[in-house]
Amino acid sequence: MKTKILQVLRQNPEGFVSGQQLCEQLGVSRTAVWKTIHQLKEAGYVIQAVQNKGYHLLSAPDILCESEIASQLDTKWLGRSIRYFKELDSTNAEAKRIAEETDNANWHGTVVVADTQTAGRGRRGRSWSSPPGMGLFFTILLKPEIDPSNAPMLTLVKAMAVVKGIQQTTGLQPQIKWPNDVVLHGKKIVGILTEMSAQIDYVNHIVVGTGINVHHKELPEEIAKTATSLDLELVTKDHMVQISRAQLLGAVLSCFETYYERYLKNEDLSALVEEYNSMLVNKDRMVRVLDPLGEFAGTALGINERGELLVDKEGEVVKVSSGEVSVRGIYGYV
């Protein structure tokens, strides 16, 4: 009921929605509508009620409950099942538990969201700071019919969705640091971790986790020089944009659904290469490839349809896949 009322009110941002209209659309009584409106007000929603005009949503709190998230969704299948937790060890871990403890694959497209994580992880087991009320931590659970070797490209698909979602929500222009980070003005703002359970030729499940620094006003000393948050970046703008994490999540999920479906057509990034490279902060810049088999420097040319980074090493174009390889700028993080 809360979700449906919020959706209807948001569809009429400039005007009022009558109580009768809500009753007819939802198939409930005026009393049920009034009670739900009252509950929303108690949760922090500012809803104007005027006799003979109806209800008008003036503002919403920045909360990540299931009804708020669902009311922000504009997807066909992704996120139609939302699992929200106030506190969780990690959204990736919970998504894997859902897949492993459920007999059927109806969980495909489930999104796990947490307000805080006690054991948030990044790539190669690095910890991810997840204080309550500050960030957006979520995981998409997928069961695609693809070759397991094509799964790592989903990290790049997710990075594109995050960049686009942030652009749409805040007006900021983040970029991708290949393969799994999103940066703003040279500082990391998003981390992505993709994990898979598979057999030789069959995917059991894939989880694509994302952590976005949103409301952090300061960051731990050890990462302050290389990380930032959306709020910190927006402080430099003429006016402060009030970010709704649920709205941001809805935008990212909508973008991911679009990019993911384009990826599935060929199980590669052939339909996304050009747009991805336009988002790539490394493109045409000198980078250092930190490969366990031997480091080398070169100019990043962009990615190919397999998501590999093409690096010009003294006239030879080297294809760099993710895995154990890291890429850094010659003189810093990017």
Which descriptors would you attach to this protein?
five-stranded antiparallel beta sheet; 334 residues; alpha+beta; globular; seven-stranded mixed beta sheet
Explain what the structure shows:
The chain starts with a helix and ends in a 5-residue tail after the last strand. The chain contains nine helices and 14 strands. A hairpin with a 3-residue loop joins strand 1 and strand 2. By secondary structure, the protein is of the alpha+beta class. Helix content is 30%, strand content 27%.
Offer a concise description of the structure.
The protein has 334 residues and is α+β, with helices and mostly antiparallel strands. 30% of the residues lie in helices and 27% in strands. The strands form three sheets. It has a seven-stranded mixed sheet with strand order 3-4-5-9-8-7-6, with helices on both faces. Strands 13-12-11-10-14 form a five-stranded antiparallel sheet. Strands 1-2 form a two-stranded antiparallel ribbon.
Q: What is the end-to-end distance?
A: 46 Å
- What does the oligomeric state look like here? single chain
Q: How much strand content do the residues show? A: 25-35%
The number of distinct helices, counting runs of at least 4 residues, comes to 9
Largest sheet: 7 strands, mixed
What value does the average pLDDT take? Answer: 90
Q: Biggest sheet, strands in spatial order?
A: 3-4-5-9-8-7-6
Q: Would you count the extended β strands for me?
A: 14
Helix-residue proportion:
25-40%
Rg, alpha carbons: 21 Å
Order of helices and strands: HHHEEHEHEEHEEEEHHHEEEEE
Spans of at least 5 consecutive residues with low confidence: none
From the helix content, strand content and strand pairing, which structural class follows?
A: alpha+beta
Task: Based on Cα principal axes, name the global outline.
Answer: globular
